[in-house]
Amino acid sequence: MSLKTPSFVAANMAGNDSDIPQNIPSCWQQTVQTWKFSRRLTKYILFSFADIPGVSLKIRRFSLQIIQMPHQIYPDLLPHTINCVTFPLPGEGPEQQLLKPNEWSYCDYFWADKKDPQGTTSVAGFEVLLQKQLKGKQMQKEMAEFIHERIKIEEEYAKNLSKLSLSPLALQEEGTLGEAWTQLKKSLHDEAEVHLKFSNKLHTEVEKPLLTFRGDNFKKDLKKYDHHIADLRKQLMSRYAGVEKARKALADRQKDLEVKTQQLEIKLSNKTEEDIKKARRKSTQAGDDLMRCVDLYNQTQCKWFEEMVTTSMELEKLEVERIEWIQQHLRQYTTLRHETDMFNQSMVEPVDQLLQNVDPSKDRELWVKENKTSEVRPVDMDI
Amino acid sequence: MSLKTPSFVAANMAGNDSDIPQNIPSCWQQTVQTWKFSRRLTKYILFSFADIPGVSLKIRRFSLQIIQMPHQIYPDLLPHTINCVTFPLPGEGPEQQLLKPNEWSYCDYFWADKKDPQGTTSVAGFEVLLQKQLKGKQMQKEMAEFIHERIKIEEEYAKNLSKLSLSPLALQEEGTLGEAWTQLKKSLHDEAEVHLKFSNKLHTEVEKPLLTFRGDNFKKDLKKYDHHIADLRKQLMSRYAGVEKARKALADRQKDLEVKTQQLEIKLSNKTEEDIKKARRKSTQAGDDLMRCVDLYNQTQCKWFEEMVTTSMELEKLEVERIEWIQQHLRQYTTLRHETDMFNQSMVEPVDQLLQNVDPSKDRELWVKENKTSEVRPVDMDI
């Protein structure tokens, strides 16, 4: 896949120089002016001759000579290669369409490396995505821990209520009031059971799933992705090194040719036309080598690109699944809370019922029947 | 108030002897027979002469002589006087109507003393009523203690939930999922507040009232009643002692008269008619004394009776109030429970709402905007 075709370069031939940075050191100003002209000229040539078979290679060779810049000194002025990855110059080429517009997809936003704000090291965009996944796993673990803490609190509460429900306090209250009181104590025990049930369900339906979701294999899988992408990056780095080496070799050959040509003109040495032809041939060969290295580089970058797209989409999917899974289980938590409150409410009802039935007259009857000392009243003593 | 008028004695003249216990020792059989006859005869006389003015006293005197029984030996055969309180013999007189029929009122069932099952001591019926009131006060105190224990449990629970709600676990979760998680933690804090509020209201609306209902004055008032009734009982005891003393004196005088009469008949001594007249006069006087003592006794018993009725009605009312008051405050308890469950339920709602809003796409957008490393994709390296 060629990311940059002659046609769209040509389409930009008339483009302005807004991509050239403003803050160029003054000693380079002249060089930059020359180069700007050269670039425009090259673009014209490319446009004119691009589609003629056989011409393309010649033109490319030629344009190399024209638009070659001492890029080792000011690398930003060429199509950006940062950390061996090549990006378009700002403003150059048509606006890039997102691979997945309106989706804020990982595959559109993590191509560049992230600079470490404190130092000079940087981290691959893919690494940022990976860290996100690892953090997600950590979040899941912490949520499980939180639920565990709630479980402990509920168990403690249940234990305390249960213990209190067995209290003998006011055990001796009798009659309808005594019944209501007994039921009140029993309802405390029932409440305890409700909270115990709640804590058990929290454990099986929320805590445990949160803990076991994506077991140990998950981290292993992430590591696999990590290594795979890192390997491809390393390959890219080595291809880029090849390009740099070829570029330098070409520059050396060109310099040599230039020097020899000048020397011939001023009859400075006994170099013959033959020597110049040889130098020119070596220069051309160096140019071909460079093109070959650039092709290899581009192929490797393509491979890395494809893998990046596939893998970042996988991570994106994993994140969607993680969020949905957590959402589902937290909803289970709130469902259990609702249930618990409803059960709790129903535990109070028998107490209400019996309290409504409290009847002092009934209680007096029961108590008097049990405790009366006589059923007759005193009478006058007889003579 | 005379509890036993000649008219209703007379109405029973033809009554049977079913009131006489069956298990009379054989040595008393003959005496009992004589007495049964005498009783019938007396009733006949009383019936016949009861309404003739001036006759009543004579008849009463006469009947005393007839129906006098060695009651000191077998007291149960006279209208029951137990511990100085006089009860009708079973079966004698018309069926007593309850002062407050169908109400199981204290004033109908606590006239007799209660025998201590283990020993020979006994406790006044009124004492049983008093103990009931004291026990009621104890019950109220124990219920307050129970509520206090619940308050402590609720405060502990609230404290634990509140502490957990401040936990930094999974604090780093972001986006819509992070918001839902934050709300979940906040709802825990809100739940804690609900339980704290519950415990505070339990304290002011249930525990404190239960503790302070009928303060220290209550026991003092009960003591007053106790002493007042006990004093009247003591008076009754001393009146009864007076009756016994007069009864004995009469028996002695009658014996003396009998002996003197016999001696005259067999000309055993030089006793004159004059001596017999004197003996008879003393006998009659002793009879009058006895009647006076009996009247005093009956008046005192009346006074005690009236106070008993008034005071036991007061205790009955206090018990009704106590039961209703406790019922009211336990209903307050269940009301607070209902409220608490409802508030608790409403605390979960914002969490449900935010969980419903959890949106993996939105979260990806937010995260990518924040963390993206580039907005352009790599392109082919140019020549």
TrEMBL record, chains A, B:
The keyword Coiled coil applies. InterPro entries: AH/BAR_dom_sf (IPR027267), F_BAR_dom (IPR031160), FCH_dom (IPR001060), GAS7_F-BAR (IPR037957). PROSITE patterns: F_BAR (PS51741). Keywords: Coiled coil. One of its GO terms (biological process) is clathrin-dependent endocytosis. GO terms for cellular component: clathrin-coated pit; clathrin-coated vesicle; plasma membrane. It comes from the Eukaryota. Pfam families: FCH, WW_FCH_linker. Residues 247-274 form a coiled coil. Gene3D superfamilies: Arfaptin homology (AH) domain/BAR domain. Residues 102-363 form the F-BAR domain. PANTHER family: GROWTH ARREST-SPECIFIC PROTEIN 7, PROLINE-SERINE-THREONINE PHOSPHATASE INTERACTING PROTEIN 1. This is Growth arrest specific 7. It comes from Sparus aurata (Gilthead sea bream).
